[in-house]
Design a protein that fits this description.
The protein is α+β, with helices and mostly antiparallel strands. It has 13 helices and 19 strands. Bound molecules: flavin-adenine dinucleotide. The site of flavin-adenine dinucleotide has 39 residues, from helix 1, helix 2 and helix 13.
Amino acid sequence: MHSFDLCIIGAGPAGLLAGIIAASAGSRVILLEKNPEAGKKLLLTGKGRCNITHAASSAKEITETFGKNGRFLHSGLSRFGVAETYRFFENLGIPLKVERGNRVFPESGSAKDVRDRLLVEFSRKGGVFRMNCPVHALEASPRMVNRALLKDKSVINASRFIIATGGLSYPQTGSTGDGYRWAKALGHTINPTLPALSPVRLAEGWVCEVSGLSLKNVRLTLLVNGKETESRFGELDFTPFGISGPIGMDLSRNIGHALNRQQKTELKLDLKPALDFKSLDRRILRELNAAGSKPISAVLETLMPKKLIPPFARLCSLSLEQKSATLTKEKRLELSRLLKAISLKPLSLLGFKWSLITSGGVSLDEVDPRTMASKLTENLYFAGEILDLDAPTGGYNLQACWTTGYIAGISAAA
Ligand SMILES: Cc1cc2nc3c(=O)[nH]c(=O)nc-3n(C[C@H](O)[C@H](O)[C@H](O)COP(=O)(O)OP(=O)(O)OC[C@H]3O[C@@H](n4cnc5c(N)ncnc54)[C@H](O)[C@@H]3O)c2cc1C
């Protein structure tokens, strides 16, 4: 008899959840993690605050964000969807709250709380956690995994195995695509992997001046060959080389496609999406008149963060010292136009190193959506980002980890 019923490789969100569920069901579980700690990537989620799920009104709302592959999650979400995720974390002592855009976070605002509570719960249920334990390969006979071979040449025997090693993004957190290699060796198809939810490098040199600035409630629109193709409202961050933040990252997939096809690619940033051009221009006229002899910089301060004023003024050739009331109509219209549409030119996406997730991965055709079991290898299961599932920002990607982790854990324990 094996000393473990179940061996889970990868202590990220998917592996941790699968471990808790299987151990709760009475399985003897070992969780192997190559890092000196669990959930290194989980600690970074939501800028350290962990956007744990999305307060969606239906399972369909979640599945649709994953595109056509989202159908795979349908059955899993009916057993462990958003409501069950809420209950699970609240029972763990992690109350949740809904924020702007229906993003759900722990009330404590701490991803570390989430990681620590998951780990404590896993041990409380009798699971064995082994860190600093990189798995090198899976040894298999036809249609069966026999054991996990560790880098230090030791072996772990178990009746069943779950691969939860994540994708290729942020390799500095441990996700280096090892699981793809093992799945491929066992006959699985690995759909081409690409960085997704990536920061975007821009041509505009001025962005480095505003690096670190985060804009809320702005709109970013992608134009390909002059045609609007996608538009997002929300939060945008500036980096030393371009943009990131939810709306920048969410557009990155189509920006990448357009750049790869060498199409003309442009972004328009609307700093005042709540106002149409005419209303905005009227407001600016009022403010310029009210400001009278004060410098234009005083008016700009009411319209944008201070850090953005110098590059903005340069873009529309405004002298910040000029008296507000002396601005010509032409210049005022130019200012209003720029507030509604700052043009940005994407050059490239940052690669896996800085992309939040990986698109592509283990083909869903070869995994049973009701159990997460491999259709090719009897005692093998998959959970989390290793599967060919990816969604925009908003808590969807972690929800896919909780859902597939739960299903894999409960099925492997059965
Ligand atoms: C900066 C950042 C912020 C993010 N924010 C959010 C957010 O707020 N909300 C959201 O929904 N999603 C977010 N994501 C995406 C989310 O973190 C991932 O989708 C999720 O972590 C994937 O979980 P996983 O368990 O499948 O894999 P991972 O989290 O990648 O975990 C896999 C684990 O397996 C281990 N491992 C790999 N190979 C081996 C091996 N050979 N032997 C042993 N162990 C191994 C790794 O060390 C790692 O700990 C964010 C991602 C990043 C990078």
